[in-house]
Design brief:
The protein is of the alpha+beta class. Helix content is 43%, strand content 21%. The chain has helices at residues 55-61, 65-72, 74-85, 91-100, 105-114, 116-121, 143-146, 150-159, 165-176, and strands at residues 5-9, 17-23, 27-32, 37-41, 47-51, 89-90, 125-128, 131-134. Strand 2 (17-23) and strand 3 form a beta hairpin. Helix 2 crosses helix 3. The longest helix has 12 residues, at 74-85. The radius of gyration is 23 Å and the shape is elongated.
């Protein structure tokens, strides 16, 4: 099923106008709620685009909602941007999406920077370099370590200095897999 893209026209001092995007890449043919159709450039400063049902559309539709969420759950805003994208999204694009929603570049940069550790701990966000991807199922960041043969895992436990707690646990799991089942006397 194709995702329905919505255009939101916001002129200062005017009510928001919504329309369904019929087609278009660099320009979009929009069927506005007024019954009128028009072609709109994707970079028009008065028009923003969002997928129906997305958090982005909620933010565009309800002025003040984004600011409220930033105050209540700043890291959740970044997660919502990643989830809404529906494909891998680069850090710079996350910042750009926030600026499109009305944040200053400085605020967007600070918000993304402050969310780094929370994103790394989020089991639904897959991070590879500057790329972020939402996963509906939790992802084990240490799956590769857990899959090591037991002898390799033990060697790494004994020879690698300063392992993180999660890495130690994953390597210990790989070693335990080779041990006989623990019985209680």
């Amino acid at each position: 099923m194709a995702l329905l893209e919505i255009a939101v026209w916001a002129e200062p001092g005017e009510p928001l106008l919504f329309g369904r995007v019929l087609k278009g890449v660099s320009t979009a043919l929009v069927d506005w709620e007024t019954g009128r159709q028009s072609t709109v450039k994707r970079n028009d400063p008065n028009v923003r685009f969002a997928v129906e049902g997305s958090r982005r559309l909620e933010w565009l539709s309800k002025p003040g909602l984004l600011e409220g969420q930033i105050k209540a759950d700043p890291h959740g805003v970044i997660v919502d941007v990643i989830r809404d994208e529906g494909k891998p999204i680069q850090t710079r694009t996350i910042k750009m999406r926030l600026v499109e929603l009305g944040l200053t570049p400085t605020h967007a940069d600070a918000l993304v920077t402050s969310a780094k550790s929370a994103l790394a701990a989020n089991r639904h966000v897959v991070i590879k370099g500057a790329s972020h991807l939402w996963s509906e199922v939790p992802v084990d960041p240490f799956a590769g370590l857990r899959a090591l043969p037991p002898h390799d895992a033990l060697d790494r436990l004994l020879t690698t200095p300063r392992l993180k707690a999660g890495e130690k646990e994953a390597l210990a799991d790989a070693v335990r897999r080779a041990l006989p089942t623990k019985t209680t006397p």
